[in-house]
Design brief:
Length: 91
């Protein structure tokens, strides 16, 4: 799913938590996070990244936190790690 498609779904549906990758087609994760903050300032955002060409996961996830992500998770991660992070965020 692209960032644009995800934002369109967000405009149509109420959600408790958004999980976004930092590298997306159409717009990057920072742009998505910034737009989500504009639309729903209190929404909990989890950003994930495995890095990309010339960018480490740490760099991209730091940018996510600066843009407004509540939590971050570096790839690769296990299903259990993801579920634990989601549980922590919704509690």
């Amino acid at each position: 799913m692209s960032g644009v498609e995800g934002l369109e779904l967000l405009r149509q549906h109420s959600i408790d938590l958004l999980i976004t990758d930092m590298l997306l087609p159409g717009m990057d994760g920072v742009e998505v996070i910034q737009e989500v903050r504009r639309l729903q300032p209190a929404l909990k955002i989890l950003a994930v990244s495995g890095g990309g060409i010339g960018a480490t996961p740490e760099f991209l996830l730091n940018r996510a936190r600066q843009a407004g992500a509540v939590s971050t998770l570096a790839k690769p991660f296990t299903r259990e790690q993801l579920l634990a992070m989601v549980q922590q965020m919704i509690d």
